[in-house]
Amino acid sequence: MLKKVLVVALAILMVFSFAACGGDEPAAPPASTGDSADGPAVGDPIKIGFVAPFTGPMANFTVGIHRAWELAGAELNKDGGVLIGDTRHPVEVIWGDTESNTTKASEVATKLVTEDKVDILVGQWTPETANPVSVVGERYKVPTILSNSPDVAWLENGPYEWCWGVLFNIEAELEEFFNGLDTLDTNKKFGLVLDTSLDSILISDILREMAARRGYELIEPGLVPPESNDYSAVLRTLKDEDCDLVFANSTTPVLATIWSQIQQQGYEPPVVMLGKGGTFSADLPSFGKAYVNFSSETQWTPDFPFTSSLLGMTAQELSDDFTATTGDSPDMTIGWDYVIFDVIGDVLSRTASLEPEDINAAFAATDLDCIYGHVAFADNHVANVPVVFGQWVDDGNGNYTKVICGADSVEGLDTNPLTAIPWDKVQ
Fold this sequence. Notes:
Elements: H1 2-11, E1 16-18, E2 34-36, E3 39-42, E4 46-52, H2 65-76, E5 82-84, E6 87-89, E7 91-97, H3 102-114, E8 120-124, H4 126-140, E9 144-150, H5 151-155, E10 163-168, H6 170-181, E11 189-194, H7 198-213, E12 217-219, H8 232-240, E13 245-250, H9 252-264, E14 271-276, E15 295-298, H10 315-326, H11 333-350, H12 356-364, E16 367-370, E17 373-376, E18 382-384, E19 388-394, E20 400-406
Parallel strand pairs: 1-7, 3-6, 4-7, 4-8, 8-9, 9-10, 10-18, 11-12, 11-13, 13-14, 14-15
Antiparallel strand pairs: 2-3, 5-6, 15-19, 16-17, 19-20
């Protein structure tokens, strides 16, 4: 199936339109209209406005999205476009770069709606850049889909009428953390290194109840400003409290600073867990040679038992394709990127017309098995997908691979016991 899709991808002229700050791919040719002697009439293109952090501290989150569209776009356009009624509509993407900035996310989303007149708006990656897209979608009544953000943070801006979120549940994610932690003998002192961002505040609130219920003692030294360069006081408290477990949630550059300050203090916790950053193979160089047995949220593994509804490709096949085209290990972007196009492809196959109300109604009726499991939107407009707990381990040749240590939410997914950081090997 992979070869077939790749052949189709090469055979079809892809149409890419870019927002001013989104890139420099070739622009799409104008669509023709009118009757065709060989089939249905060809109508105006369906425009998807895709807002994501292509540059800035969160740029690693978007390393695979253009490849995802290359495959998905080829499939959607293979017969000249999506058939709606008796008319085919080619599908194109207009990219908008948030530059990893909340204000910019709102600006580019607004431009896509008001100037480019997109039919569907997409927002990705963390509350900071996803939530502003939702605000724009609701304001202008444009069907909008979000992926990869904690559901509770997204729901803070609800209720929603025009926005739909394929999201993860923080409580379910943190339960998987504890599932993994239970496999390692520690003193069960769980120390937090968190800033004042919305998702960090929500995480600390959830952990207070969850840690006690799971038999762990939570140590909270206090929150620091986002992008702070000084975590020494927080880490000193965790060291003095003899916390075996340290959890930090921030961007990769900040996490690298935290890791450096842990070593400077001579602090040697057996477990260091990372949220938000530190989850990509491309993040590893930021930590030098010291990236040994770190644990993190794990939002993708080639072992997921899921298949893309649009492409017919398995998690393993899409992972292999990612490595072949980027040279990197399979990363968490794969599921989040392809689920967007799985859902949009399904919605376009069912919508009665390109009127916003009909597209929105098709989103509401989504009931789909796809690359991230089953997607069906609840009354709050959220479809939850699984997030598991993993650990970066040395393969013996100086390379790191992610193994799964907690995955009760995915039936049949094998797990490994968590292992402590070998401090004698940390450089």
